């Protein structure tokens, strides 16, 4: 919205006033909370303030008839701003836009009590008012947007021999290892947004039979033509099978798998699909420069990367990829969006050894940024949610839609 004022009271002895507006939302208990301040306009009794944007929730908490109080002040350098006057309005009144209803008398009740001929301390006029609806993650899911979930697991030798209990890949008959727990925790939630429950699953950093060739993006199910596994149980099965057949080796290269998923994401940029890559690793990335470049390239695609660090290693370099503080850059180019979320699994391990609780904590945190990342891509491309699809009798946890037909997810 944008406002201007006319004939405000002169408060400064040597000049005119330096007016600014303060907006307050009224609360249920009769108190007021500041929700916006305009800029100060120096030495002007007829100011025109810059247009500003405010969430409806902040202005009136969604109650269109709730009182919105506006104070008009004259700015003073020492912070003791002089009160010029006030007026009240509401979201409903403001939403009428520019009209005679939206010219407000600025009243100073102290002044009114002292001066018999007092009329007002000026007027404030609404120049424009526009409401934009913000689309949500759920709007896109209801409209049929699919989450494509891909898994990549670290098979480097630093994990330790899988047949030994000290290995991070150890297959105990009594409990899941950290890789399996991270995979199950994140995957079981994401699979509710994936209609065909087919997940491409890869390993990296291992020597493959029969010739011992090192691979940084091999399908866990050994099927190069179709790396899809059926549901999270299928991914776990393929993971355990791979542990029995491949030789853990190295180095820890991330870029090949990121580029692999990015090629698939580049084929579907119309908002119908969004790709989430879960990488589970135990250590330091060997190809950091190439990984940064792959992340910068992927940031312009419908894609997010979740990295879960397992084991006791220091993961300092991973924080660099998680662009919360500083956006990832490569060769002078910065990532268009922050698409990487990194967490060390040890931070989520329940002290009493309750694996269900550990998994729930991990999933909550690593999936927290996905909705925002999906929205940032859609917004950057001007993509709107499609109309909600008819509900089925068997909806997943948050999606009440019959998902759109999905393209094959075989690797590019």
TrEMBL record:
Feature: compositional bias, Low complexity: 391-405
Ranges where the C2 domain occurs: 1-104
Region (Disordered): 379-412
Source taxon at top rank: Eukaryota
SUPFAM superfamilies: C2 domain (Calcium/lipid-binding domain, CaLB), vWA-like
GO cellular component assignments: plasma membrane
A UniProt-annotated Pfam family: Copine
Alphabetic keyword roster: Calcium, Metal-binding, Repeat
InterPro entries in UniProt: C2_dom (IPR000008), C2_domain_sf (IPR035892), C2B_Copine (IPR037768), Copine (IPR045052), Copine_C (IPR010734), VWF_A (IPR002035), vWFA_dom_sf (IPR036465)
Molecular-function GO term, any one: metal ion binding
Gene Ontology biological process: cellular response to calcium ion
PANTHER family: COPINE, COPINE-9
Family: Belongs to the copine family.
Record protein name field: Copine-9
Species of the source: Dissostichus eleginoides
